[in-house]
Amino acid sequence: ADANAGGMTSETLDDYEEGAFTPTCEFGSGGNTGMSLGTALGRYTKIGRVVRCDFVINFSAKGTSTGGLYIASLPFTADNDSSARITGIVPYVATVTNVEGQVMAYGGTGVSRVPLYDATNGVAILSQANINDSTQLRGVITYNCS
Q1: Is 75 left (phi over 0), alpha (psi -120 to 50) or beta?
Q2: b vs e for 96-107, b when ≥16 Cβ sit within 10 Å of the residue's Cβ?
């Protein structure tokens, strides 16, 4: 087969990066009053503009801030293409209140944070009321960066 089929060249995948990042959580427009995370670990792989982030977050105190729950401090800012928003899945969720089903991430453009939703409960954004002092989240987020 031709190595350059379809216009591909040896430089096609020349932008590859792996690393660690420290995810944070925010409620609403950036609030985290009294919030404390016992564990906040993240790994990412970036190939070209595509970023995949794996994360583990364990709360030790949820604090008193209100509003929707966001995974924040993603390693790159998402691009501004509204057809390719930040998406993700949180297959492991423990010690939450009134979360009926799968937790998913779906968010905006030009940002480095993404809200979490309960996909079964009327697709409602998770809030401080859903989180407990010992909530655990493990998931993966994928997006295109600028």
Answers
A1: alpha
A2: beebeeebbbbb
Query: Does the predicted TM-score (pTM) go above 0.85?
Result: yes
Dihedral angle sign, alpha carbons of residues 90, 57, 27, 96? positive
C-alpha angle 61-64-70 in degrees, rounded to nearest 5: 75
Q: Which two tokens stand for residue 85?
A: 């928003």
Taking the C-alpha atoms of residue 137 and residue 126, their distance in angstroms, rounded to an integer, is 12
Q: Which residue has the higher pLDDT, 4 or 109?
A: 109
CA distances from 33 to 66, 112, 119 (A): 9, 20, 27
